[in-house]
Amino acid sequence: MTLDEVDEFATSLPGCRRKGHPGRVAWYVDDRLVVRQDLPGTVLVRVDFADRERLVDAHPGTFGVPPRWEAHQKVQAELDGDADAIREAIRLAWDFQRR
Question: Taxonomically, which superkingdom (predicted)?
């Protein structure tokens, strides 16, 4: 998955808007983070803890939780991982931010 594909999917979700600048692009709904560019080749997706654990368990090659994000409701996704799983995580994050 590429950042362009992340953009295409995220902005297809009602109310989800792209912000940021090159190298630090992010997508928000109602000014609440859904997904943002992180380390090269990764994005950070804001999901609740239960969804995060489920995603990591189901797709360990795609998702992980670096130590600095353990206390946060975020999961790191490898863009070269399962694109459908990344889209699922983004959709979960979008839904989480709309609650």
Answer: Bacteria
Q: Rounded distance, CA 54 to CA 96, Å?
A: 15
What pLDDT is attached to residue 99?
Answer: 81
Q: What is the pLDDT of residue 32?
A: 95
What is the dihedral sign for C-alpha 66, 67, 69, 74?
Answer: positive
All structural domains of the chain, each given as residue ranges with its CATH number in brackets, are 3-98 (3.90.1150.30)
Q: How far is CA 92 from CA 22, 40, 74, in A?
A: 25, 23, 11
Q: Which two tokens stand for residue 95?
A: 């839904």
CA distance 24 to 48: 22
What angle, rounded to 10 degrees, do the helices at 83-98 and 49-58 form? Answer: 170
